[in-house]
Model the fold of this input.
Amino acid sequence: MPEPTHIFECTPSDLRDLMDELRLKPFVADQLLKWVYGHGVTDLDQMTNLSESTRDRLREAMDFTRGTVVTRQDASDGTRKILVEWDAPASSLPLIDDPAARDRRTETVMIPTDRRRTACVSSQIGCPVGCTFCASGIGGLDRNLTAGQIVEQVHHLQQLPDADRITNIVFMGMGEPLANASAVFDAVRILNASWAYGIGARRITISTVGLPAAIRKLEHFDIPVTLALSLHAPNDKLRRQLIPWAEYSTIDELLDACDTWFQKTGREVTLEYILLGGVNDRSDHAEELAHVARSMRANVNLIRYNEVDGLPHRRPDDQSVRSFQRILRNGGVNVHIRASRGRDIAAACGQLRHEST
Ligand code: SF4
Done:
């Protein structure tokens, strides 16, 4: 028997082909899209305009969801986090503290502000990069998520009680998105499509630790997304200490790739810089970073480190963060300190894991 088709990775034309194979009318494809994306309904029994025999045929041929929300946590600042278990064995309900399920789980976060509801989605289970400050990379990569599993995370966030519509997407959850580029690009096409969630291209940010060849591929991607480069160090020596994959590229090569990105797309790059107390937050680091940011015409987001149990880094104090920002500003760089959201439920940057915390 062929594997069921996952609705969250289908385009309208994929669905119409499937309806043809199932000897169903093409308009059933449109009805399914309306239920799933228009009404958030993934339970065939609730799709009341489909006949029973149509539903029976679809039940055998399609998966509507492949993930189960195992836990949900709400932070005091309104941030919400869900732990999703993928492809759980049909025989059992997922158990919260099941160590055997660790390699099937990812976390997804919803960050609300006045005007936005941002979904921070995962692209891989675990992460192959292993940055020294990040919980997601502990234990390495388990596997890539499919495009459908990436899109389905947005569905689960929108199903939370009192949830508002997601307006923005950031690929800053578990995983290095450009190490799973083909699934990420397919997911972006669906998230952006008017028949699905219709999220504007500029409201979708792909964040990478910096793979110059993959950034070049992104220049040719047909959806004009926003690019964020997680630099975290202003020179190659320190970058290689913090980000193991930095040994495969230099900051000069990244400068080149980002310059071409700017020439081709006309869009500025944002540099993400996690400030680790006593490691990359000295004034000479700020001066070096100002030089890099000016060469890239990049804006800089400073992120105060969020502590992770078992990792050696500490959060810098407010005064040193402000003085780091001042040096960048005086160096002519557009720089912001990003608010840490969801710290009390370990949903902040670098804190996402495979398990419930
Ligand atoms: S910071 Fe990003 S690239 Fe580095 S280990 Fe964490 S998820 Fe992976």
Q: What stands out?
A: The longest helix spans residues 251-265.
